[in-house]
Amino acid sequence: MKLHYSYWLIPVAALMLAACETDEVPEPETDEPGMVDQAEEQPNPQDEWWDRLQALCGNAYAGEMVQYDEEADEGWLDVDVIMHVRECSESEIRIPLHVGDNRSRTWILTRSDDSITLKHDHRYPDGSAEALHMYGGTTDDFGSAYRQEFPVGEFSQDLFHEEGIPDSAENTWYMEVHPGERFTYGLSRFNREFQGDFDLSDPVEEPPAPWVVTPEE
């Protein structure tokens, strides 16, 4: 006697149903493996920028003004302008800026876990501080590996108002590091643009020490 094929399908279907009931279907993953770790491994642009600036330590570079006001910035024109990346540590970089024979200026950069602060140290030849001294700002984002911006801070805003230059309370300073090419320093506000570019391809002779700088201040 021949069995109809449908009789064979019944036990097969029963076995398949039982397998479905006993086998557990794995729950889908909510996060793709490695996504968080990969994000955490992304480099911090401020770290890269800081490392590029640190790599210049000990060298001096000549610069020229590329944006300026002829009247306000007359003292910067037709003179040698040299930046000297003179002192570096893990958390601080000091860069004296020589404008002709004037050795009053030093840029002080301080690194924290999530920001970089720029201060302008201004002194007289005897080392005493000028009225406009230690002004600057702190980054409010991570910027890029090439450029960091420093919006004016509250202390500096108050200082500028006290000294009768309220427009400067709108300053944003910026620094760019393009290895082997140029370093840029500048400031920008609604009525002012100032920028100097320094040639990183050709270090120059180290200038004399800046007028006395006291690290504790």
Compressed to H and E, one letter per element, the order equals HHHEEEEEEEEHEEE
Task: Characterize the overall form.
Answer: globular
SSE class:
alpha+beta
Gyration radius, to the nearest Å?
31 Å
Straight-line distance between termini: 108 Å
Report the mean per-residue pLDDT as an integer: 86
- In which range does the helix fraction lie? 10-25%
Q: Quaternary arrangement of the chains shown?
A: single chain
Named CATH topology of the domain at 51-199: Lipocalin
CATH-defined architecture of the domain at 51-199 = Beta Barrel
Taking pLDDT < 50 over at least 5 consecutive residues as the criterion, the unreliable ranges are: 1-15, 30-36
CATH class of the domain at 51-199: Mainly Beta
Total of DSSP H or I helical runs spanning 4+ residues? 4
